[in-house]
Amino acid sequence: MKRKYNILFLLIILIALFPGCEKFLDEELKGERSDVQFFQTATDAELALTGIYNCLTFADADNRIWVFGDVASDDAAKGGNPGDQADIDRIDNFNIAADNGNLETVWAIYYEGVSRANKLLDNMDGIEMDGERKSQIIGEAKFLRAYYYFWLTNIFGDIPVHLTTPTPEEMQKAKSLRVDVFNNAIIPDLQDAATRLPASQSLSQAGRPSSFSATAFLAKSYLLMEDWANAENAANQVIQQGGYMLVNIYNMNFQLATKDNLESIFTVQHLAGQDPWLGNRLNQWFAPRAENGYGFNVPTQSFVDEFEKTAEEVYDPRLDYTVGRSGQPWFNDTVMFDPSWSPTGYMQKKYLQPLDEVPRTLKADGELNFIFLRYADVLLIMAEAQNEQGKTGDAVGYLNMIRKRARECYLYDENLPGYGTIPEGLLPDVEDQGQSYVRNAIRHERRVELGFEFQRFFDVIRYGENYANNAFNDKENFDYNTNKFFPIPQKEIDTNFEL
Amino acid sequence: MRNLITWLSLAFFFLIHFTALSQTISGTIIDKNNSTIPGVSIYVEGTTIGTTSDIDGYYSLIIISGDVIGDSLTIVYSFVGFKPQQNRIANDPAANYTFDITLLEEIEMLEEFVVVGYGVQKKSDVTGAISSIKMNEINNLPITRIDQALQGKASGVQVSQTSGAPGEGIKVRIRGIGTINNNDPLYIVDGIPTKDIAGILSPEDIESMTVLKDAASAAIYGARAGNGVIIIKTKKGKQGKTSLSYNFYSGFQTHGALTPMTNTNEYIEIFNEAAAADGRDPIPDEIVPQLSDTDWMKEIFQTAIMQSHQLSLSGGDDKTTYLISGGYQQQDGIIHNSSYDRVNLRTSIATYLTDWLNLGVNITSSWSNRDIIGASGDGYGGNGGSVVRYAFFRTPPVPVYEPNGEFSDLPQFDGYSRAQLNTWFGDGYNPVGLAKKYDWSDKIFRTFGNLFADVQLMEGLNFRTDFGIDLSTGTEKRFNENWGTDGRINNPNSMYVNTELDFTYTWTNTLNYKKTFNEKHITSFLLGTEVIKNRNHGHIGNDRDFPDQSPNYRYLGNGLALNKSVSEFEDGWALLSVFSRVNYNYNNRFLVEAVIRTDGSSRFALGKRWGAFYSGSAGWNMHHEKFLKDVNWLSQMKLRASIGQTGNQEIRLYNYLSIIEDEYNYPIGGAMNIGYAVASFGNVNTTWETTTTYDLGLDLAFFDDRLSLITDYYWRYTTDMLIPVPLPPSGGSADPPFINAGEVLNRGLEVELFWQDTKKKLKYQIGGNIATLYNEVLSLSNGRPISAGRIDNGVYATLTEEGYSIGSFYLYEMEGIFQNELDIFTHAYQGPNIQPGDVKFKDQNGDNKINEKDKTHVGSPIPDLMYGLTMNFNRGAWDLSIFFQGVMGNEYYMQVNHDIEGFYRGFNVTKRYYDNRWTGEGTSDEYPRASWKATTNNKKPSTRFLEPASYFRLKNISLGYSFAFGENAGIKALRVYVSAQNLFTITNYPGLDPEMYDSDNLKTEKRSNPDLAAGIDWGTYPMPRIYTFGINIDL
Hints:
The complex is a heterodimer.
Chain A lengths: L1 H16 L15 E2 L7 H12 L11 H7 L4 E4 L6 H7 L8 H23 L7 H26 L21 H19 L14 H15 L2 H14 L22 E5 L13 H4 L10 E4 L1 H5 L11 H6 E2 L4 E2 L4 E2 L10 E2 L21 E5 H14 L3 H21 L22 H15 L6 H8 L1 H7 L8 H4 L6 H6 L4
Antiparallel strand pairs in A: 2-4, 3-9, 5-8, 6-7
Chain B lengths: L1 H15 L5 E9 L10 E4 L5 E3 L5 E7 L7 E7 L6 E6 L6 E2 L2 E2 L3 H7 E4 L2 E4 L7 E5 L22 E5 L8 E5 L11 E4 L2 E3 L11 E7 L2 H4 L10 E6 L5 E15 L9 H15 L17 H5 L3 E13 L3 E13 L6 E16 L2 E15 L15 H7 L24 H8 L5 H7 L1 E20 L2 E20 L13 E24 L3 E24 L20 E22 L3 E12 L8 E12 L4 H4 L4 E15 L10 E3 L4 E3 L2 E3 L3 E4 L8 E14 L4 E13 L2 E3 L13 E3 L2 E17 L2 E11 L1 E6 L6 E7 L2 E6 L8 E3 L2 E4 L3 H6 L12 E3 L14 E4 L5 E11 L2 E11 L2 E4 L2 H4 L10 H6 L18 H4 L7 E3 L2 E13 L9 E9 L3 E3 L28 E2 L7 E10 L1
Parallel strand pairs in B: 1-7, 1-8, 14-17, 50-55
Antiparallel strand pairs in B: 1-4, 2-3, 2-5, 5-6, 9-10, 11-16, 12-13, 14-15, 16-17, 18-19, 18-56, 19-20, 20-21, 21-22, 22-23, 23-24, 24-25, 25-26, 26-27, 27-28, 28-29, 29-30, 30-35, 31-34, 32-33, 35-36, 36-39, 37-38, 39-40, 39-41, 40-48, 42-43, 44-47, 45-46, 48-49, 49-52, 50-51, 52-53, 52-54, 53-56
Helix pairs in contact in B: 6-8
């Protein structure tokens, strides 16, 4: 019996001790860090910075800016198997509902990039590290934030802007006008980045922007805003001091061995054989089914017809660098292009690697960059900015630098038939026949020079309603005012009541 | 045997003492239905004096004077399956007695008492809403998981499976879907709580299961009882001699009805029709002789075996009882290469160390292995895609094997290019190859059990302490073999191994006091504390590029990849609770109960951790009232009412923190750089979700309990619902935190009806249950709806929105097929290129154009009605039981029909589509024309793909025969039976199985609560039809 009361005594102690055990409920986070514990050291800053870059890649098949830049334009059709990826078809035909899947995925990826940049920039103050690198990290983060906003506002027009990490309440955010997205986010970020970033990046840092990358990007932004004077000024700085040049052969920009060359200003990098994936999936998305590709984003006849040819039917060499067509070899001369691969009879080549570089079975693990900005673009921006300000004579000079490089591929590319001599009458210099004439010449040159670099749609919209209606005349649903920007995705509308 | 020996020695003894004085006790032993019971042991307690009843139930016990010391002696009547009875008589050699004894079956005794939270209650005292299930009801079901046994047996309990693959997970929903987060009930196994009972027990280990449905009965488990509680009581040893039982069944399984698909000729016909419509090249006639005609649906299935062996040994004396059991279960899948095996061992011992101290231990260990194949979904969830889906897709002209014996992959026929053949016959995977190449297993070793001590401190006051452990260690291993044309599938090969150790301990202390005052006021009081702590620790390793793919080489480290990866994780949670319950019973007429429980959870931030939950209930046993005393046909009438609260904290751990994760990498200068980013946002303000249930119940029994009826009506409100409120993607894509926002209502009527009677020699029982369910979201955070159920990139099928049920389907409504140009012209504008034969959608908002604003709520995967019907018949040695089960009023979205009920990719089409497609004006108003170009319009997520999912299924029918044995046969009982499961199903559902619930896809979908996106069928592994033969032997 005595034992029994000992047990009772023990029990009373147990129950009495009980409420003091709040500590029992403390569970520490292990194996991971919370945002409070992170952002302490230089290493943390670098890790978070890489996280911002991560949203750039085309290792994510949902990164579909090509659907907007190319397929929606007059340059490309959807391609692929009929019926496959019907939502891309709907964009091609301007039958676009807010629940179109391509809207949401691009929106989410690019805003995630913004969000990661905001998070790092918010926390940079508290990080103890070398001052020079710290400033560069801020510069890179701002450059990347500008990059994401640039695509978002070009695709969607007026959009919500966050420049610091929002609380869930602050995520309820109204749209800013597109002009304000440029003036309050993109331009200031790029101006600041230009002061922080180094004048050049070594090859071991390929993929990071330099100060001139930021300035060139500024020029491009001013171009989109039609702020010609500032565009000219920024482009001029890059031309005078940037140290960039046009590579001898146009195609060197789109080949593995010669990527990250002196023409590159800012590129999205890819690397094969990584886990998680960092290869370029466009190598599969755009390749013919016969090579284990999906065959999307194929050139239209209209695009092919834009290329000049001589009286002897010798085409602008950029055509065959850009497009696979009947009667022409398909990479490395081993196979001829088969027009049955594509519903239009053409396929584009700028993101594709030959099978001896990337085997059929690893098709999605390509290594080519996406070139966001190259020197040729800056020269064309310069030409356009000057021409629009009435400096047509100067503009023609820059324009002709592009044409000269294109025709002179015949002097450098031994694979071209008749290599060594520029064919008679190929791509002659444009003469100053007035502002309007030169404007058309520049527009033509942008289309062929920058074809399939995801720019055409935005150029067409920029050129205005008349040009757009003319260019898109076979898209019966296209209405300039409705369709110059794409609808904000349903998922955003459903969750952001300030819209 | 021992009885026989006793008998003989007693007879011998009797002969020797022939002349001595003796006392004779005799009589007949019968059961409740007046049948005599042979073989009953009759003995004098504390002695070896005894006898057994003869074939007519007659017994005669002779006690020699002087053999028993004392003034009185106790005679015990005992028989397996019946409650023992005792008779106390005077030890007087002169007195002879005749006692006719009626023994009551043990099962009926069990019905008198039901297991409730932290204790047992007389059924007549219960004031909450409870359903209980006896093991004998599930005896003949060839099931591998115990939660399957609940299906159709308890009203308001919905049991469904993600797929029919062996060992696949089960979803149990009690009284609907109360929340947008976790809806799984809490299980209490011998006092120890767990959220996952997979593999713990074999169905043979269970004595009873009790479902606590309303908050009043569940509130004592407050913390995690928001979705209801299922209390499982395992079998224990019984006082008496050792008994050994062996249960065995073995059987085979086949597939049920398959969806008819087109054959090669039909396929070519429809392909060429679509090609003509779209201006493409047809399949040339010359190729036809080279083509196969494969029925892929048949090819993936096999006849599979299953077997189960269970051996148990139990017994005990007046102090100690024990039970030891072991079992082996094995089930092959009806689709190649899927299976489930389990070995389980259990020990249960309890002993009275002194008359006031009872100690015991229950330990279960099990080892299981599941061979997994893709059974649902399209691979988005990481399983590689459902084999059934690919069987739907693969076109019939392609053979299963190439002439060289390898699995065929991309179609290859002489004289045609691969591009042509891919266009004609598709490039989907070979489902037979896919199934057989799977090398994916999940092995789990789990030990679950408790130690307890029950101390009687004084009369009526008991202290009990329970220490339980749940230790589970598992290894999931998967090798993705590289195969197919040019090695295109899984290139490079890769491997994944996840080893995980999960440990939870639970320590519960309760103090229980019972006291009756003046014989009329019966009170009891419970006070308890509980601590639970969990820790989970594991490693994941990845490797790639194995130069040798042979099975013995499939181990981490053998791959050639330089960037193998390894990661480690550890996390944990804790709960701390104090609870109390008071019961008051006035003369068995009025019953009142009140419960309070306070819980602290580690999942919430400091200051938000504690939640208190209250409940109260009352009952009135009206049949004890004077005004009903004389109503002979009414044996019970009880009115119950309850109101109570329960909590829910099942959100991700560390929800209050924003968490940084790795793997956001990027190459700089040709070298990979590791990147980090915020993967989930935290919220420090999150706290408990509360479910408040109001329940009104009426229990009736008539004609000496032959007919009984239990009815309940309930309203269940979930408030402060824990929702990962979707944040605008413009704020970033990290997972949103759970916050408290939203209210859900579930309400319904539950009826359980039971009739039992004996007509001549036929004994029969008929039990049915039916439950209605109405589910509505009353509010969501700021009215923001949540879309879920991804059916294509960025396309979702469900919308959870105020005023509709959770996971309600939100789609375009199909109005028919455009028959002609005028039809198109006069209808709302659907986009360019619409032609006669295309699907016509309803213009819901009347703006004369079809866009996303015309989507509307069109149905729900939640059934309006669920029911079960069980019938047992017993006549002589024969027994027959039949069990039907079904649901009504729900719909499923057949995502797989996107691709096989139209001509959209290089996939096969259903025979139904082939037979009924539109081919000209007036030919069809249901199935559009065959055309790839029309996909954009015809494949829109619409009611075209929404199918009724009601079904009525014969879950089980079994027929048994029990052999009779003489007393000295050495065998107590032998029963053999045959049974069939899922023998037939009545349904309009065109998929393989209307019992599917959700899919593997949800595993990676953000906010992956299955209930937000239930009922999406991507082609699902169906339930097998099972035929078994079984034996039950008792020694």
